[in-house]
């Protein structure tokens, strides 16, 4: 910190960095980018006034906190932009950004819904194929069972007929035996 001839306090680059919280490179960049008029000593060293430091702090605030572009800072320094209109514009930009984020979120959600629906349709198709296969198997098993039942019924019917025929034969034989005259020996031994 030095006093110049006009008794105005001036600061070195190192002091300015401490006061503004900017790096040396950023102070130099802002000076060049925004065409700031900074005093120099006869040896070419920079000397910053209180107004220079306040301006650097204000530029830093607008860039870092309010998201101003370098173009907007230049317009503001030249009096082309009113800070209040920038705040309104900044708020509108934030709202637009928020809406864009919401739209993107909805698109993502919609995409996930479409993927889910596609997966669901695939799953339903697989289930439908499985149901068709099971139906075909059940149908063939029904035919097999029906055939086997018909064969069984046929065998049972034949067995019943054979039993009936056998009973008839036995009854006829018994009747035949009873109706025959008894032989002499039969009458003697049995009789």
Description:
One of its GO terms (molecular function) is DNA-binding transcription factor activity. Keywords: Coiled coil, DNA-binding, Repressor, Transcription, Transcription regulation. The protein is mostly helical. It has a domain at 2-81: Multidrug-efflux Transporter Regulator, Chain: A, Domain 2 (Orthogonal Bundle). It is 76% helix and 6% strand. The protein is built from 6 helices and 4 strands. It has a 4-stranded antiparallel sheet with strand order 1-2-4-3. Strand 1 (2-3) and strand 2 form a beta hairpin. The N and C termini lie far apart (162 Å).
Q: Helix coverage percent of residues?
A: over 70%
CATH architecture classification of the domain at 2-81: Orthogonal Bundle
Number of discrete helical segments: 6
Instruction: Specify the oligomeric state.
Output: single chain
Report the sheet with the most strands, covering strand number, pairing sense and barrel closure. 4 strands, antiparallel
Strand order of the largest sheet: 1-2-4-3
Poorly predicted sequence stretches spanning 5 or more consecutive residues: none
Percentage of residues in DSSP E strands: 5-15%
Mean pLDDT: 86
What is the H/E order? EEHHEEHHHH
Report the structural category.
mainly alpha
Number of strands: 4
Under CATH, the topology of the domain at 2-81 is which?
Multidrug-efflux Transporter Regulator, Chain: A, Domain 2
General form = rod-shaped
- Rg measurement, Å: 56 Å
User: Roughly how many Å apart are the termini?
Assistant: 162 Å
Coiled coil: 89-116
Keywords: Coiled coil, DNA-binding, Repressor, Transcription, Transcription regulation
GO molecular function: DNA binding; DNA-binding transcription factor activity
Organism: Priestia aryabhattai (Bacillus aryabhattai)
């Amino acid at each position: 910190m030095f006093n110049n001839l006009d008794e105005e306090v001036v600061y070195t680059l190192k002091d300015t960095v401490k006061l503004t919280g900017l790096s040396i490179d950023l102070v130099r960049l802002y000076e060049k980018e925004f065409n700031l008029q900074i005093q120099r000593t006869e040896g070419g060293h920079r000397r910053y006034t209180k107004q220079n430091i306040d301006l650097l702090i204000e530029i830093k605030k607008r860039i870092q906190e309010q998201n101003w572009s370098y173009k907007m800072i230049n317009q503001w320094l030249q009096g082309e932009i009113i800070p209040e209109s920038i705040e309104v514009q900044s708020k509108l930009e934030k709202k637009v950004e928020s809406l864009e984020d919401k739209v993107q979120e909805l698109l993502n959600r919609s995409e996930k819904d479409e993927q889910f629906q596609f997966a669901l349709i695939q799953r339903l198709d697989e289930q439908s194929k499985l149901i068709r296969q099971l139906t075909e198997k059940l149908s063939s098993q029904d035919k097999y069972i029906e055939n086997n039942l018909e064969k069984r019924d046929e065998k049972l019917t034949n067995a019943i007929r054979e039993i009936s025929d056998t009973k008839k034969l036995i009854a006829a034989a018994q009747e035949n035996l009873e109706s025959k005259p008894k032989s002499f020996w039969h009458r003697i031994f049995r009789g």
